[in-house]
Amino acid sequence: SEPPCGHAETPSSILSANEACGDTWSTLGRMAPEHREILLLKYIQELSYEEISALLGIPRGTVMSRLYHARKAFQKEYG
Q1: How far apart are CA 2 and CA 60, in angstroms?
Q2: How far apart are CA 47 and CA 4, in angstroms?
Q3: In this structure, CATH architecture of domain 32-79
């Protein structure tokens, strides 16, 4: 199951938030594994560039480059 995306106060805002959450996870699922992984590490696990660098065994600059390309790919795929 997918993690929650946040909190909403009214039934209509809950529905809107759930739809956006589903769209986000669906988009991530269609992305290249390398892009999906770097986005999840940065924005879901909230790791720093340095932490991602150490975890993946890649230079900090490569982390930044992958994030740049992953964000662009996400924007293109999400619409």
Answers
A1: 29
A2: 18
A3: Orthogonal Bundle (1.10)
CA dihedral 28, 67, 41, 29 (to 10 degrees): 10
Rg for the chain (alpha carbons), in Å?
14
Encode pLDDT of 32-56 as tens digits: 999 999 999 999 999 999 999 999 9
**Looking at residue 31, what DSSP letter applies?**
S
Question: Tokens 């230079």 sit at which residue?
Answer: 59
What digits encode the pLDDT tens for the residues 3-20?
556 555 676 666 666 676
pTM: 0.74
Nearest C-alpha neighbor of 38 from the set 58, 52, 54, 23: 52
